[in-house]
Design a protein that fits this description.
The protein is α+β, with helices and mostly antiparallel strands and 199 residues long. The protein has helices at 2-16, 167-185, 189-198; strands at 24-34, 39-50, 53-61, 67-81, 84-103, 108-130, 133-139, 142-146, 152-153, 156-166. A hairpin with a 5-residue loop joins strand 3 and strand 4.
């Protein structure tokens, strides 16, 4: 009960606070994951590529038999404010993982490890930007295509990422690049004169 009240208080403070917490452009941090096989720790980086879209790269391992790399495209939707939203997405994953094969005839399980795996990751969760940090909680199921006997594994993940580039800074740089491109494409005064006289 106390945890619920604390969580709701943090959300309300972040939503209605006078302190202007910036939306992020680029973030980098850590991710802790938990599934039915292992607990993992890793690095996560996220880059906003459009107003409500981002790319996230996740490298995680249990430092034993399971290590994976995922790249995900995500769509974001605000819940209370731009600093608190839900998201969903999908992407590809590569890894080295352990695998379990059930032998129905003699009721045994054969365990293998070091399997090169390829799969599809889905993701859905919520995130909050507070004090230059993005905290997110998500569910990331993996659908295996190659290398593992289990077709499906789900993972609950908790991430904390620092904002490296704020959204306003990213948009400012994009405008500057666009302005420079427009200036390059703009004809010079001499070229304009030549065009007039050639007519």
């Amino acid at each position: 009960m106390t945890r619920s009240i604390l969580f709701i208080s943090i959300i309300l403070i972040s939503a209605f606070s006078e302190v202007k917490t910036q939306r992020y452009g680029t973030t980098l941090g850590i991710r802790m994951g938990n599934n039915q096989i292992s607990r993992t720790f890793g690095i996560t980086a996220q880059q906003r590529i459009a107003e409500h879209a981002s790319l996230e790269a996740i490298l995680q391992s249990d430092f034993n038999l399971n290590s994976t790399f995922s790249i995900l495209a995500k769509k974001h939707h605000p819940i209370i404010s731009k600093r608190f939203n839900y998201y969903y997405g999908a992407g590809l994953s590569l890894g080295k993982e352990e695998s379990y094969v059930k032998n129905e005839s003699d009721q045994t399980i054969i365990r293998t490890y070091g399997n090169n795996t390829t799969g599809v990751d889905l993701i859905g969760g919520i995130e909050m930007t507070l004090l230059n940090t993005v905290i997110s909680l998500d569910y990331k199921p993996n659908i295996n295509l190659v290398g593992r006997s289990e077709f499906y594994r789900g993972q609950i993940g908790l991430s904390a990422r620092m904002v490296l580039v704020k959204s306003k800074e990213q948009k400012k740089k994009q405008r500057q690049r666009q302005k420079a491109r427009n200036k390059q494409n703009k004809p010079s005064f001499n070229e304009k004169l030549d065009a007039i006289f050639k007519k």
